[in-house]
Amino acid sequence: MPAARVLIDGPSELVFDYAIPDGLPVLAGCRVRVPLRNKTSTGTVLAVTDHAPADLGFALRPLHSLTDPEPLLTPKLLELARWIADYYACSIESVVRVLLPEAVRTEENAAKTRKAVVLTQLPDEETLDQLAKRAPKQHTILTLLRHVPEQQMPLTDLGNAAGTSVKALVAKGFVQLIDQQVRRDPDADGVDEILPTRDLPLSEEQQTSLDAILSSLETDGGSLASPPSPTRPFLLHGVTGSGKTEVYLQAARHVLEAGRTVLVLVPEISLTPQTVRRFRARFAHIQDQVAVLHSNLSQGERFDEWHRIRKGKARIVIGARSAVFAPLPDLGLILVDEEHENSYKQDQVPRYHGRDVAVLRAHLEGATVVLGSATPSLESWQNALDQKYQLLRLTHRADGQSLPLIRVIDMRLESKKQKSKDTFLSDRLRSAIDDRLAKNEQTILFLNRRGFARSLQCPACGHVCQCPHCAIALTYHRTDDRLICHICGHQAVVPRKCPECKDPSIILQGFGTQKVEDVFHKVFPSARIARIDADALRKKNALRDLLNAFRARKIDLLIGTQMIAKGLHFPNVTLVGILNADIGLHVPDFRAGERVFQLLTQVAGRAGRGSLEGEVIVQTFTPHSPSIQFARHHDFDGFADQELEMRRQFGYPPFARCALLTVRSTHERRAEFTLQTLHRRLKEALPPGIELGEPLPSPLVKAHGQFRFQLILRGPKARALTRHVQQVLDKTPLPEDVTAVFDMDALSF
Ligand code: ADP
Ligand code: ZN
């Protein structure tokens, strides 16, 4: 007898086998109703076998029924789920939960219907005349229905008192009552009016890129619609403003016209409104085939959008990370915009990387995937160097303008001049802002957000205390007043004066956005200043309103963290300032240099996007750092060369895989002790090639009432790392109030 393995809905990740009753077409990916103890529950079929295991010793209970006649998950999506569970060392249940979001699983969210009245037969003139005299209400209803599209309308539109009249009309056989499905349309209100756009004539580089992408979609028959065969992923490296989006748009159009579907991933919908708007505008003629998956869709809207996608009604889907699982049939093209962005990595279980999952999904589905960025991640770049990815390049701005001039201000000299340890406004930046205010042009100021780790820097010479073994900044630990390396555990005393220049003013870095805003209000009393930080994102529409006000030039000076460096386009912004380029450089993370390079390049791309020339001012205590110098010269290749050399030398990604194991508990000692135990066990049978870091307090040692301790693992192969950690975790029972979190390809440490 065939059996189904069913993942029961609910938080406890229960999986049971059920017998499949004769004739019930149950397939993997179907949603089913099953008996569970003495109740009925719902679940998802993970797999179907022809024969239930014979040696069970008891009969399987049969499942009750299907909630939906067709499987909701395709075999390919289930395969993707299995891969993710394996690679990131998490349960398949946790992945299925992401594939079939709660909104889709919950039966209460099922498609909404309403009663509608349909005209079935119009009475002859005579009867109509009689009705007009004796039952004027019935007459009115019939007349209304004659003139509406499809001759049907919602019952409620006929007014409260219509019930009896409709009943009478039904009895006479003139109308019928039906259940009409209503789409809960997220765009029903609130989407700004969109002017349709058409393809632009492409530059030579754009055309070459587009041709390459399209030819990968063609197979022997020369038709885009032919059966798929996997191709190498494309890495589209285009400087800011080079017209990558135009390439995406035209590629998407071709794929849609060939009858296949398109998935567009962006780092975060609310921070990339322009990209979304450009897709909507280009596909305005097939507007109802475009689905934008925001985080603030209601449950019902999410349910409807998901099913529209699955049924092939929405054929182009734009969304952030989790949209990579959108159930598009006949997927032809996946576009990953700003592929280097960290927000593609999920920071909860399952801790997948949206870009990497996109590459795998494209492979499984025979779709083409394009990863685009002005500052590709070094992982993707190395893949291009190794010919695993195919490199496409756009080297010029599409509007023919030159890239903005980047000025680097040496803050060591400024702090001497201003005789202050924590100065953050140089004379050069101050006069540049004054100049913009006078000309009625706009300025964006970036404040590099500090992580939780704090490092020591000398304001006189710029020296930062670094680990001699790991090439990362040492982190200051207040509790024992020491500097510690977060990778190898190396410890150092806190110097009372700078080890390099002997200046006694060595300080902990950092100042907050609030303080910056206060100072700017004093220095520029007439300027209209606004600040964007994490709070702005929390309130619905707050960010959108602020950005609209800025676009409408109601704000002169916008202060924000790096989160506003992405994809914004303001023609009137001619000055971009970076207040503290260093902070990001000295977080205890081997990707620090890469992040600063990305930030500077992206930020510089915000200046001079219109007809006005742009200027960028970067304030730093380490003006000679390679990240700053290469960004200043818009030299990605140069930066990548030297950064990859460092990564190779110290054994960091992309030349090794790196994972983080964190242990959390409300009980500090227990967390620490558990991690030490795990460390010991990991060490006992350490496979060759794997490097095991020391157990240490996390940079953010206490959060949400829990203490955190962590260790870093490195090795040449992800699987070997995962397997080793999984084995140790499996045989190490954790105390009840302790959790262990494994993060493969971790991005923050
Ligand atoms: P990117 O995505 O690489 O940052 P965009 O796609 O935003 O670049 O392009 C920058 C600007 O150049 C946009 O205003 C876009 O409309 C324009 N643009 C892009 N391609 C062309 C083209 N082939 N001809 C004219 N303008 C173009
Ligand atoms: Zn170290």
UniProtKB/TrEMBL annotation:
Taxonomic path: Bacteria, Pseudomonadati, Verrucomicrobiota, Verrucomicrobiia, Verrucomicrobiales
Full protein name: Replication restart protein PriA
Family (UniProt): Belongs to the helicase family. PriA subfamily.
Keyword terms, alphabetized: ATP-binding, DNA replication, DNA-binding, Helicase, Hydrolase, Isomerase, Metal-binding, Nucleotide-binding, Primosome, Zinc
Function: Initiates the restart of stalled replication forks, which reloads the replicative helicase on sites other than the origin of replication. Recognizes and binds to abandoned replication forks and remodels them to uncover a helicase loading site. Promotes assembly of the primosome at these replication forks.
EC numbers: 5.6.2.4
Subunit text: Component of the replication restart primosome.
Binding site for Zn(2+) 2: 467, 470, 485, 488
Reaction(s) catalysed by this chain's protein: ATP + H2O = ADP + phosphate + H(+); Couples ATP hydrolysis with the unwinding of duplex DNA by translocating in the 3'-5' direction
Binding site for Zn(2+) 1: 458, 461, 498, 501
Cofactors demanded by this protein: Zn(2+)
